[in-house]
Amino acid sequence: MNKKFVNVSLVFFFILGVTLVNGQQITVNFNNDLTEKDESWFKNNPESFPHWLTQVELQNLDKIGKDFQGNSPPPSPVRMPAEFETMQGVLIRYPFGISYDIIAEMSEDVEVVTIVESTSEQNYVYTQYQSHGVNVDNCDFLIAPSDSYWTRDYGPWFVFNGDNEQGIVDHIYNRPRPNDDAIPIAFGNWQGIPVYIFPLEHAGGNYMTDGQGIAVSTDLVWTENSGYSHDQIDQLMKNYCGIDNYMVVPDALGEYIKHIDCWAKFLSPDTIMIIKPSTSHSHYQDFEEAAEFFENQTSCYGVPYNVVRIYTHMSEPYINSLILNKKVLMPITGSQWDDEAISSYETALPGYEVLGFTGSWQSTDALHCRAKGIVDRYMLYIEHTPLYGTQTSNDGYIINATIYPYSGENVVNSSTGVYWKTETSTWDFIEMEGLGNNQFSATIPAQETGTIVYYYIQAEDYSGRSEFHPYIGADMAYSFDTYMDNNPPEAPTITGPVKGTAGTTYDYAFNAVDPEEHDVKYHITWDDGYVDVTDFGASGTDVIASHAWNREGTFIITAYAEDSKGLTGPESTLTITMPKNKIINRNFFLIVNNFLQKFYEIYLKF
Question: Annotated catalytic, 262?
Answer without folding.
Answer: no
